[in-house]
Design goal:
Layout: H1 2-17, H2 22-31, E1 37-41, H3 44-47, H4 57-62, H5 68-82, E2 91-99, E3 110-115, H6 118-123, H7 134-144, E4 152-162, E5 165-176, E6 179-185, H8 188-193, E7 201-202, H9 209-220, E8 229-237, E9 245-254, E10 259-261, E11 266-276, E12 279-282, E13 285-289, H10 292-299, H11 308-317, E14 320-321, H12 327-341, E15 350-358, E16 361-369, E17 375-377
Parallel strand pairs: 1-2, 3-4, 6-8, 7-8, 13-15, 14-15
Antiparallel strand pairs: 2-11, 4-5, 5-6, 8-9, 9-10, 11-12, 15-16, 16-17
Helix pairs in contact: 10-11
Protein name: DUF5017 domain-containing protein
Organism: Pontibacter populi
């Protein structure tokens, strides 16, 4: 009997020491505290909360939100499902995905190749059978296509007079977001430069298209900055389908080194939520980044912001040196700038102000409009 008792005691000790849920229980106990504060990144299960929602079809399928306004509306439901156990006062900093280039598409609703005729030139007021500027081309498009459809593509061939000579040009024009845009048109020379003798791409080229378009755009855009965007129009042979040829487009953006496909590119944004009265409430702040005139305004001695020494340093270097500007003086400066630009905002509105500093680089301070009309440091 004594042996059985010892055996049972040993087994109980093993199960107690190796409880696999111990860490989970500890985490839940921690999270139940009203002052729980942590950061998360939304995952596929969070986005799946909107799987059957027809108002936001992109959330579950694309796993992204369109921006802060939408995030403030939809994330509370995700948090309620994920953290139903959290009490009022809990704070969560939520990282979520947004489309880097909203509204960008690779879809073409219709397309045609059109050569401008002598009658067309006359109809839009040209004295000769040619155009003289790019504005003439847009006038022709408005005349020829008075009611264009969204994502309509026209490959236009026309004569252009410039510098004493007339040249025949073939170019692509894409109607998107309510306007005609002159987009990059892959030329015969472009095809030849990548050893394509057909004058069109096909399925065998799909994997290399982004490489080809990066090459073409680098040759065309002399100075590109990160985030620049271009549509590329190219001829495509459907070798695996009906053997037809069609004109397609691909959206490309410059990442600082190369041109990359833009559709589907996401970036991370952050929004803080706090649980109040059993509801997750977003912390919405207006972002503002200082422009050149703001630095000039603060550095002007007539405005008497901060100290003369701090203003002199700002005028000399064009940024806020933390060796010369105290934390309180920085808030004073940002408050003056916000009062200059946002005096009409209601009291209680928060602002996230980003500015250049030394040696830290970009800095952000959060201020709130007080009842007296001044903008002061926001205290959590």
């Amino acid at each position: 009997m004594k042996k059985i008792f010892y055996l049972l005691s040993s087994l109980m000790l093993v199960f107690t020491a190796c409880d696999p849920m111990e860490d989970v229980y500890e985490e839940l106990d921690k999270a139940k505290k009203d002052d729980a504060a942590f950061a998360i990144e939304l995952n596929k299960d969070d986005y799946a909360v909107y799987k059957s929602n027809t108002e936001y079809p992109h959330i579950a399928t694309g796993q992204y939100l369109t921006g802060e306004e939408e995030a403030a509306l939809v994330i509370p439901a995700m948090l309620s499902k994920r953290y139903a156990h959290l009490g009022n006062g809990a704070t969560v900093e939520v990282n979520y995905h947004i489309q880097k280039f909203p509204g960008v598409t690779n879809s073409v609703s219709s397309w045609e190749a059109y050569t401008v005729t002598a009658e067309d030139y006359t109809a839009v007021g040209e004295k000769f059978a040619n155009f003289n500027s790019s504005s003439d081309v847009y006038r022709l498009l408005d005349h020829k296509y008075p009611t264009p459809t969204d994502k309509q593509l026209v490959v236009l061939t026309y004569d252009m007079y410039a510098g004493g000579t007339t040249s025949t040009i073939t170019d692509s024009y894409f109607f998107v977001n309510g306007d005609w845009s002159n987009i990059y048109h892959v030329t015969a020379q472009d095809y030849a430069s990548v050893k394509n003798t057909y004058g069109s791409f096909s399925g065998s080229d799909d994997a290399n298209l982004k490489v080809f378009f990066d090459k073409f755009l680098k040759s065309d855009v002399i100075v590109a900055k990160e985030g620049d965007f271009r549509y590329v129009s190219y001829y495509y042979y459907n070798s695996n389908g009906d053997k037809s040829r069609t004109q397609r487009i691909m959206a490309m953006y410059f990442d600082g080194e190369n041109w990359m496909p833009a559709v589907g590119v996401k970036q991370t944004a952050t929004l803080k939520f706090q649980k109040k009265d059993n509801v997750w409430v977003p912390d919405l702040s207006i972002p503002y980044t200082l422009v050149a005139s703001d630095y000039t305004y603060v550095g002007n001695d007539d405005n008497n912001i901060a100290t003369a020494a701090a203003r002199a340093n700002l005028r000399q270097f064009g940024n806020f040196s933390t060796y010369n500007w105290t934390n309180d003086q920085l808030y004073e400066a940002m408050g003056a700038i916000l009062k200059l630009h946002f005096s009409g905002e209601e009291a209680g509105k928060k602002f996230k102000v980003t500015f250049d500093s030394y040696p830290a680089g970009k800095m952000t301070l959060v201020l709130v409009k007080a009842e007296n009309g001044n903008f002061v440091k926001f205290e959590e």
